[in-house]
Structure formats: structure tokens, C-alpha cells
């Protein structure tokens, strides 16, 4: 695929002018870094950084029956969204309980809910939801919002930096708790993110988002690319669809059982399959004890059988290599395992994750 | 993208500098570190070990990938740059100053087989097409 075929967000020119290294990410030409992804990672944990996340798709569901529809379509229960602007994290499952995508759903009003889905699965998700709507809830409108662009501002200083360049927004957004959002004059600001730090995600028109990006950059906030986004989310113990889970595994096998609400009799797509078959494995956090870097697909040898790394990498905050791995159910915290890294079996330990969040290392690091 | 004219190069992206005392200093090129991204580990060869030209003698690991380092000429390792253990990013910052190891050549005629700056430049241009 030549670069001419790749989609570009409204912030493309900003990235180009900043000399970003661009890559093909799910058919979009996106910045992987602007010089050093490790530096960008540190900026977010220590101060603030901004990410172009316009490649993700916003889908608005509108209609009286929208909430009921999503109660039947999502693994988490949107009945929990009591107040406007509240959000929750959910998996979208197929009939076999396999994960089609993970997403955040915001309750904008009783008749309007907003989903934010991954770029790689956007088309699939839209087709899936539309087909479900056609079968069960004709009166609902499923609206892909390709008119919206999005920036994530993340870090301990993120909210303050946002208010510096958008003073009028402070009053409405300073009371937002995490997983809450508010609509203001064409913008939607939510206290959510994919880094394990505080911050906002802002959705608005292309022009507004470009202006916001420029103002934040003008105020000295660091631009951060997909490379840093990946190391931050891995440290924060957040799953990446396509690596940590896909249609062949259930949420329970992906560390996401907590996001499946089975507390009521609510029927939802995938419920029967989840109840009918218990998981055979689970997702575990690994800390590499030897020198090296854990990476996806590496084999893991445990005392209870084999598994494999789903997401691995170098953690700039820890200065060590960490991973999420799918391992047999009986593997326990503290277990020693071996990982096949570049023709050698290296020693690793099963640790609780998240590994780091809110600027702090959360696990015990044994000296190497 | 400065390519120092006084250095010699390999098609596996190492650079080599001939020193006054007959030893050679080895590192990796700007092009190599640029492709790899931020480096996180450097595994240098052990002092005293001898390698044949083209033999794998070390590894550099970045956030993206791991890459083998190959001995540009045959020789014995007489020095390694220990600074890189704690600060692998020096290679990203100054690839031609952040040397990895020094060799005492066992067959100086092998130096003729290396690429000069112009030939290496052609190589990397060809690679990007």
C-alpha cells in the first residue's frame, strides 16, 4: 500500500511540520514519534503530552431505544450510566463470547450514547452494530461521526495545560471525575485516556482540534506519538485490541472479566457463550528478570504449561522489560517462568499489573 | 544526515575508524539507529574475544526490534565502551561518537573490503526504494 492510499487526520500537516516519523497504522498515516518515543513517554508521566487520536471512530447512537439496544449489545451494562456524561469501558462481543473490540461508551443524554472504537476495527464495528440494529431496534440511528477529530492530553499537568489555553472551558470541566465527560459549545471533553495518567480527551470539529493542538504546542506541551502511546498503555496495564485480545478469546481470558456485567439477568450478545464455557487461560503481567526485551508471540514456559506473550516491550518508567501474556489458568502471582527471547530462554516473573500509573512504579523491582 | 568521510562502513551498517595505534573503533551508523528507534540495551562483545570478519559479535536492542552487530573485520576485542550499558541512548544521540568496541585487526588487508562514505551512501539510498 503506497502512502498515497493511507488516510490522514486533520492534524497530519502539524505532524509533518514537526518532523514526525510517520507509519501506517490501521490504514492511517500516523506519527510514531517526533524524535524520541522514550522522551515522549517520560513527558507524559512527569508533565504533559498530546496525542492525535483522530484515527479512532466516534459512533453516536440516537433514539429512545438506544440505551436498551446497547444493554443488549455490550458486555458491560450501560444502565450504570446514570448521569449525563458518565462513561464506562466495555467489550463488544460476538455470539461466541469472542471479543470484537473494546471501547468506551459515554451517556450523552437519555437518547444519545457515544461510542469511541478502535481505528482498526471501526468498519467491522459499524457493520456489526448496524446489523444488530436492523435485527432488533429499527428506530435507532447509528451515526459514524467522521466529522469529529480528537486529541488526548495526558499527564499530571495535562488538565492545567488545557485550561491555560482554553480558560472558558475550566468552569465546566474542572469538576469532571474520571470517566466523566461534558459537552461544551461543539466540543466534548472527557476525563479519560489510555496512559494511566490524568488528563482529557477532547472531541470536536477538525478546525477546533487543529487550533487546540497548535495552542497546546505553542504553550510548550510535548507532541507524543503512537510509540509512546503503546509503552504508556502497557505500563498502565491496558489492553490493546488485536494483540491482547481478538475474536478468538473471551474477556475472561484477556484480563477483562471485570468489565463484563453478569450481575443481572440482562441478555447481551455473547452472554450465553461466556456462561457455557469457563476460561482455560488468563492474562498475566510479566517482568523480565534477565536483560532483553519481551515481545508479542514469544513462547512462555510455565510450571503449568505453555503460554505466549500478547504485548511486550521496554518500560521507560521501570527501565525494564514488561509484558502481558496469556498463560494457563493455574499460573499464579510470583511464579517464575521462562520466555523464549531471540533463541534463549530468559527468566521472568509473574507480577500484578498495572506496572506503573500516575507517575509511580507499582510493582516491586528485583535488582537485575 | 552526516556521513563522516574519514570512516569506513559495512553493508550491515557498522562504521569503522582506523586509529593511529593500528586498532580500529567500531560503532553503528546514523541510518542504523534511525531505523531501530530508541535503543534500550547494548550487548557488547567481551574483551579478549576474537571474531572473524562478518561474525556476529554483539546485539543492540531498541523499543522496536533487536539487531545483531557484526565484526567489520577479523580481530580481537581490546576495548568496549561500558558507558553504553547505562546509557544506550547515546548511540541515538551521537552515533559516530558513541563507539561500541575496539578491535586489534588480525588481517589489515580486510580493511580494503569495506565501503567508503560514498559507497555506503549509495547503499542506504538503494535500500529506501
Task: Describe this protein's structure.
The complex is a heterodimer of chains A (368) and B (129). Chain A is an alpha+beta fold and 368 residues long. Among the domains of chain A are: 3-54 and 147-234, Gyrase A, domain 2 (2-Layer Sandwich), CATH 3.30.1360; 280-368, Elongation Factor Tu (Ef-tu), domain 3 (Beta Barrel), CATH 2.40.30. Chain A is 22% helix and 33% strand. Chain A contains nine helices and 21 strands. Chain A has helices at 12-17, 37-46, 66-73, 122-136, 158-165, 170-173, 206-218, 226-235, 271-276, and strands at residues 21-25, 28-33, 49-52, 57-62, 87-93, 99-109, 112-117, 141-144, 148-154, 181-184, 187-190, 199-205, 222-223, 281-288, 299-302, 305-315, 320-328, 336-341, 344-351, 356-357, 360-361. In chain A, strands 10-11-12-9-3-13 form a six-stranded mixed sheet, with helices on both faces. In chain A, strands 14-17-16-15-18-19 form a six-stranded antiparallel barrel. Chain A is globular. Chain A starts with 11 loop residues before the first helix and ends in a 7-residue tail after the last strand. The mean pLDDT of chain A is 96. Chain B has 129 residues and is an alpha+beta fold. Chain B has one domain (9-106): RNA polymerase II/Efflux pump adaptor protein, barrel-sandwich hybrid domain (OB fold (Dihydrolipoamide Acetyltransferase, E2P), Beta Barrel), CATH 2.40.50.100. Chain B has four helices and nine strands; from the N terminus they run βββαβββββααβα. Chain B has helices spanning 30-36, 83-86, 89-93, 117-127, and strands at residues 8-9, 14-18, 24-28, 39-43, 50-51, 56-62, 66-70, 75-80, 101-105. Chain B has a six-stranded antiparallel sheet. In chain B, a hairpin with a 4-residue loop joins β1 (8-9) and β2. Chain B starts with 7 loop residues before the first strand and ends with a helix. The mean pLDDT of chain B is 95.
